[in-house]
Specification:
The protein has 191 residues and is an alpha/beta fold. It is 20% helix and 31% strand. It is built from three helices and nine strands. It binds inosinic acid and magnesium ion.
């Protein structure tokens, strides 16, 4: 597989981006590797991919198409209380899953694991529903500052502790449709 991103540049946010951390091509290449690994690990089985809205929907759409197995999709929406760019660890379920997880092989797809608090809460909640297996595929993990030790089976990239946008990740609900991941210019924070 040689994923190449031939889409025209996304100029709409160009003035807001300080630097590109991960190009569209780097992201696609990594997702292809992760999809191949998942395909091998779950050979002969089917998977339920669980996405955490909204950020994970972009990762999920692309990752799923690199997984050459039967799979189904489900989504959860959660909100953590507190400031926009910091996780408070208090999680509220806004939309629950449609599937009953009992006996299913579940892979939770995350855009980014920052403090890990959101994911820790989710995994505990999902494990209580008795899936046959429960693993995590996260595109990004922020280095060094994880407050919660988590066993992440599939991780795309370890990135520095900077606030990033694009590829599903937002600031004030914008930038999710950028095909790459980058940092924001201070002016874009409204500063
Ligand atoms: P955590 O609970 O600290 O691991 O982070 C939970 C959520 O915060 C993630 O799923 C994202 O929605 C959001 N988040 C954390 N870091 C970033 C970032 O750098 N950019 C955009 N959203 C982020
Ligand atoms: Mg967000």
């Amino acid at each position: 597989m040689a994923p190449l991103d031939s889409r025209p540049p996304m100029d709409a946010y160009a003035g807001d981006i300080e630097k590109v951390l991960l190009s569209a091509e780097q992201i696609q290449t990594k997702l292809a590797e992760m999809g191949e690994q998942i395909t091998q690990d779950y050979a002969g089985r089917s998977i339920l991919l669980v996405g955490v809205l909204k950020g994970a929907f972009v990762v999920m759409a692309d990752l799923s198409r690199y997984i050459r197995l039967q799979l189904e999709f489900d989504f959860m929406a959660v909100s953590s209380y507190g400031a926009a760019t910091k996780s408070s660890g208090v999680v509220r379920i806004l939309k629950d899953l449609d599937h009953d997880l009992a006996g299913l092989d579940v892979v939770v797809v995350e855009d980014i694991v920052d403090s890990g608090l959101t994911l820790k809460y989710l995994l505990k909640n999902l494990a209580a529903r008795k899936p046959a297996s429960l693993e995590v595929a996260a595109l990004l993990r922020k280095e060094g500052i994880q407050q919660v030790p988590l066993d992440l089976r599939y991780v795309g990239f370890d990135i520095p502790n900077e606030f990033v946008v694009g590829y599903g990740l937002d600031f004030g609900e914008k930038y999710r449709n950028l095909p790459y991941i980058g940092t924001l210019r201070p002016a874009a924070y409204g500063g």
